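Take a careful look at the sequence and tokenised backbone pasted below. I need to know what the token row says about the fold.
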Amino acid sequence: MRRTFLVGHLVCLALSLPANARAQASDDADAGTPPEHVEPTAGVEAMPVGGDEANSDAMRDVEASPPEVAVEPERPGARSTVVRGKSPPPPDSPERRDPTGAITVIDATARTGEARDSAELLVGSVGLAVQDSGGYGQSKSLVVRGAASNGVLVFLDGIPLNGAGGMADLSQVPAALVERFEVLRGGAGARYGSGGLGGAVNIVTRAPSAQARASGEVTYGSWNTALGHVAVTGPLLDGHGLVLLHAGRSDGDFAYELDELPAVDDNPVTAEARARNDAQGGGVLLRYRRRLPGGSRLDVLSELALEDRAIPGTVQNPQSAGRQDLDRLSLGVRWSGALGGAGTQGSARGFFRRDGLEVTGGLLGAGGPQRHLVGGVELEGRLPLGGAHTLTTTVASSGEQVTEARGSQSAGWWRGSVMAMDEWALFGGVLDVVPSLRLERVGPYWLFSPKLGAAVSLGGGFGLRANAGQSHRAPSFLELYIRQGTLLPNPGLKPERALYADTALVWDSEETVSGAPRWSATAGGFAALYENLIAYELYPPMMARPYNFDAARVWGVELEGEARPFSWLSASGSYTWLRTQNRLGDPRYYNQDLPYRPRHKWVGRVRAGPDWLNARTEVLYQAAQLVNRTGTRDLPSRTLWSVGASSTFLHAPDVTLSVEVKNLLDSRAQDFTGFPLPGRAAYATLAVAFDANPASPPSSEDSHAPRSPSP
């Protein structure tokens, strides 16, 4: 059933109010804070920090910390790139969950006003590529270090978003919801479970604040694209609450030139229009946080998302009526805090997610409405065993079920896992050695994922880290037996396995600017061997089907650098070289590059100016990539250049006007179906934020809440 009536009301509500120029600041950057709400600052791999408001809140909590909270020093290469001042990393933060991992934290609040969706915010990171199928609202998924989209785990505040088929659609997570992205590159099976062959991404939503605040944002631009959100946060029921409504729509149709005979020189081109690229959607995010007696904390999340989008088909087989209706309901509850004495910490999480999918418009063989239900619990404890030894254990259990109304198809299974991680800080903390392993049961499959990580401080700001291990992904019952709209099943699939290793040299200058290193750089390499790799491939005329590659090799290089010569000027750049080989014995495929894996990707970004008036520019180059195993079809390379500027010209309330021009050179790229992607586009954004009492002192909960002791 189409949901345009509800979506339309959400659009009207969101666009009728002004929007936020500055992101909400975190209010609990303390030792007991889970990753959903700790303000990251930039490091070697982290993106630039948000505004002064976020920093002031974090400093307020640091100054309020009692004397017994120990300082955990930052050692180059020994921890992730997230710097949290005096507070040790919280139990569920990415650097605590994988202390030696290659972690990037992207501060989405520092990118407000840029009119970018979640996929565009992520694609600039080293080691990541986006599979894009159109403009606003069209499907977008991630490839990390050569692993297919179904081999990358995606979470929303710890709630798994990967459907039973394994892929997470980033178009269903609007940037308005996001405070930051926590990206782990490399095998994530030991810490995050089945499916983490290439890495894991945790999307951290905006957190409630102790101070009453109302904000909103509205964006309008090319192809009649309109986006907006409104948010209200403040004290609620002895805690903090947040309500955020968001909505958007886009016609998405644009003109382009088509060369029907590209092999013929001087062949005339014809004017065409990219039709059926429209989408609309909306939703609501509710969050509640309360400090409990004894210093523990309760977090509650509820999120609803609705989307309706056209199905264009392919260039060879365009569609005239097909549409896709999607909905998601996510619920999560988490307790975190100290367990007894001696620095023991624990957390307990419960979650539930319901996804809906329906293809309408008479699409041949589309099937009926489909519902995917998943729910589970996770218990984790962290026990210091002396000053240099810490043991972390996790027990998790979940179940999932898929039903399809037409044909009465239904299937479900259970999964359970046990994980243990042992952290050793040797030679006075100069060397960290972190072995971990996970034993997991997924449906009928037993999976074993060990990992060994190490990090050493070399002095002079240099550090070295390395990891090696094994990850798995079991094919889901959806991939095996049940059709998902335009995705066909394949009952012949086998479980896939990845053996991986990576290493990197990290350097931070001793000089800092606004708490971040003035200069920083990272140079690393990685390699992986996949067995029975599962990847989707175009299945004519307009479907896709998963296949096993008997074996595949992936290796590459990642280079990153950041410079902050002045407080008003910052620049960053990254380069990824990726090489893949299909090792299937069939001579048609042997040694061919895997589809949708560009060999080269370079991103450069510069931002200059104070908050009251600043400008930015970004250039992204991505090499050509194949779209089939035989190497007979490919997508050409693309260079996307974007420029923008923002000005906060009023205060109390803060009012910011931003303009953004994407794809300034009007580069004509294509999606995997052969349709062109959007060309040059321009957007304007107006944002407003109002604090009810900006001069009021911090609440007693912010200033005097007891902290969990440091390990």
